[in-house]
Write a structure and sequence with these properties.
Elements (H helix, E strand, L loop, with lengths): L1 E9 L7 H19 L2 E9 L4 H10 L4 H12 L2 E9 L2 E2 L1 H9 L9 E8 L7 H12 L3 E2 L4 E4 L6 H23 L16 H5 L3
Parallel strand pairs: 1-2, 1-3, 3-5, 5-6, 5-7
Antiparallel strand pairs: 3-4
The structure holds flavin mononucleotide.
Length: 204
């Protein structure tokens, strides 16, 4: 079985968080879909509320504190990403945007990403398409065609839950197929020595 890594970025602020709940359901569906294709996905969840102060410090100083550095490395090294934001004022939340503002501009290039959001009203579901998807297009990520929006009414009742489950499974299947057909992600260290110290000292 192939082994790949899935990083789940969730930007909910409440506790408990419906954004986290959606992130968990998406990652479970992605793990199942990948397993049917012979891929074991190792999942790491990044709760952005725990990194909110670090993100601000990084923006103010240009240096990421250790926990944020570790999270940014995890994103850069992931084979796939699930990114889930609450919708605030008809767009992604400020914390979600700020986190991706401090992700290296090349870190998401050619990386499969599943986009998802929660909101109070289904009328704002297209925020995923007019706000979130363009940001990931700018970052050159490969966003899967199905994005998943869960409004408050999607969590109540069997019929609503069934429809949400269908969208989750379709999006997770698309992400799993992208992961399965790719090589494992590689990260190059920009500070790695490309020659020996002897050569450097000799000016070679
Ligand atoms: C400041 C603010 C602005 C919001 N704006 C919207 C909005 O424009 N559209 C929408 O559908 N929901 C909006 N909401 C509702 C949140 O998207 C919704 O409560 C979200 O699912 C909360 O996620 P959480 O439970 O993970 O914290 C807003 C909530 C807040 C606090």
């Amino acid at each position: 079985m192939k082994q790949r890594t899935l990083v789940v970025v969730t930007a909910g602020l409440s506790q408990p968080s419906s954004t986290r709940l959606l992130a968990d359901r998406l990652s479970a569906a992605a793990v199942d879909a990948a397993a049917t294709l012979g891929v074991r996905l190792d999942v790491r969840i990044l709760e952005l509320r725990e990194l909110a102060h670090d993100v601000t410090n990084h923006m103010l100083t240009g240096f990421p504190p250790a926990a944020l550095r570790d999270a940014l490395d995890a994103v850069a090294g992931a084979d796939a990403l699930i990114a889930v934001t609450p919708i605030f004022n008809a767009s992604y939340s400020g914390l979600f945007k700020s986190f991706f503002d401090v992700v290296d501009k090349d870190a998401l290039a050619d990386k499969p990403v599943l986009l998802a959001a929660t909101g109070g009203t289904a009328r704002h579901s297209l925020a995923l398409e007019h706000a979130v998807r363009p940001m990931f297009a700018y970052l050159r990520a490969v966003s899967v065609p199905t994005s998943v929006f869960a409004a408050s009414e999607d969590w109540g009742g069997d019929e609503a839950d069934g429809q949400l489950r269908g969208r989750i499974e379709r999006a997770a299947g698309e992400l799993a197929r992208e992961v399965e057909r790719r090589e494992a992600a590689t990260v190059t260290d920009p500070f790695a020595l490309t020659t020996s110290f002897e050569n450097l000292l000799a000016g070679r």
